[in-house]
Structure formats: structure tokens, C-alpha cells
Amino acid sequence: MACDLWLVPLVDVLCHSPDNPFADELADFDRALTDAGLPTVPVYAYMPGMTGEVAPVAGFDYAALHLLRRAYLLSISGLPVEPAERMDGDYQQLLEMFEEAAQRSHLVWHFDHAGAYVPVDFPRPLVTDALLAGGGPLGSSHGLLRELEAVAPAIGIDPANPPAAPPAPARPTSLDEPAAAPLHEAGPFAGERHVWLGLHAAATRSLAQGSMIVFG
Fold it and tell me: Compositional bias (Pro residues) at which positions (predicted)?
């Protein structure tokens, strides 16, 4: 099953437009952030030629995303991280075993098929009834990047000098179609590395461009 990540520039011409398709979600995000004593989602001035567009940034398979989350939970718990070809239906059991750590994690405590990360720094994902009724917990791009850097050595990536990210999907993919196979990756942790590179590209560009990351 395929998962696409999109970057949505948080610029005034989009966020303040009456036709903004993300208006309801951004309002929910702002309420959750305000209730947590945090600044609201930043909105930047549009700069032609410098502001990014709404566009896909990465694509990967849900199963590989679960494997990366597994590696993260094992690594922060001080357990050995061994390659696994699949979860064999044990992902929910893993979340229950490491529930407290999972709920603190921007990488883990997030819906597979929906939800967003915003360029606001906060320590753990935000959860409200309104968020759960929509795209799920709200993550921080800063927090996601920190956790990706923490798990990188366990899957054979130097976070200070990671490989180039795979190309973004050429077109939107539907939930029920297979994800593209990892390019230039083979051997242990190939799937985890592919997902890591896509998420890392999304998080770094989110912070550099002032964009939110949207799962689709």
C-alpha cells in the first residue's frame, strides 16, 4: 500500500485565501497549538521564485514505514535492532509494548494515511478530539527530524551525511496501489532506509521552506 508525502507552503496567498483547501485543518492545528501554550502555525509572505509549491516530496510503502518505526522504538529502548522483512501483523503488539515511548514520538504516533507535521517545535505529538476526528495527531517537523537523526545509525545511515533522497513520485498514488520499489537500496534495512530518506527530505524542506508535511 502506497503512501505519499506532500509539502504545502505556509504562505499568505494560500493560507489567507477563502478557497484554501486546508483551512479547516489549519484551524484545528492552531487551536491544538494554542491550547498547548505554543505559537500557531506560521504563515510566511509569498516570494515568487523562492516559495515552494504544493507538491509530492516522497513516496513509500506503509509496511516499510512500520519497519522504520519498529527500528526507532527498539533503538530508543536500548534493544538490538535486527532486520525484519515484515511485521507479520505484530505492529499493534509492538505499539502496546512500547506505548509510552510511542506516544512521545513524532515518527511513531501518527496516522499512516493522513495527518500533518508543521514547522513548530514541540516535544511530543499533539492529540485532541478534533485532531483525531480528522487527520490524527499533529507532529512537529523539528521533532520528526530529531528522531530520524537518532535512529539513522541503527539502520546504517550517517545522519550528518545521508545519501541523496529518492525522487518524489511523478504522480499521486492511491492507497490500494503498490508503492514504488526502493531505488539504489539493497540488503538489510533497505525498506527502512528508503522511508528514512523520504521523511528526512520532507522534514528538512519543511523547515527550510516553511511548509507543512501532509500524508496522503
Answer: 160-170
